[in-house]
Input
Amino acid sequence: MTHEEELELANSTDENVRRALANNPETSAETLNQLSSDDSMFVRVRVAAHANTSPEALQILSKDECGFVKEFVAEHLSTPVKTLIELSNDREIVSWVAGNPNTPVKILEKLSKDEDEFVRISISVNPNISDQTLDKLSKDENENVRAAVAKNINAPAEILARLNKDENELVREVASENPSTPV
Output
């Protein structure tokens, strides 16, 4: 599809056409930038989730009124670090930020103390979390947090060995399935 055809579709009055365009893996970043200010939340969600969406469009979408749009921005691999830091202060979005591998380690360590178990679970599976923070989370009172640590393929062998003997059956099961767990 040519650039002109894409722009024509982006200006369509039919929301389904704009949705399909925002969903097309071949849609250009330029067209997605235009669609990032679409009136339809459904189009903006698809733009926020699209692999070709530019960091600039993601920054704009991070201020969207719709939490669902912001969730996709928070987990997008092209979201600027500055935007992730800003979103980490949003209680509705913080667990999505915690799972993004581009979230700075300093923010992840701060969030590892969060009272919300879903935030701690998201951090526990983040591939960039420090071993020290993983160790702390592996001793969390919540078994779902410990299970998430057991799922992290970058967890050190010592932590996985301990979780393989956890009091909770789910934690032991998840640890045993991790290919990094010592036999």
Q: What stands out?
A: The chain is about 60% helix and 0% strand. Residues 48 and 73 are 5 Å apart (CA to CA). The chain has two domains: 1-79, 92-183.
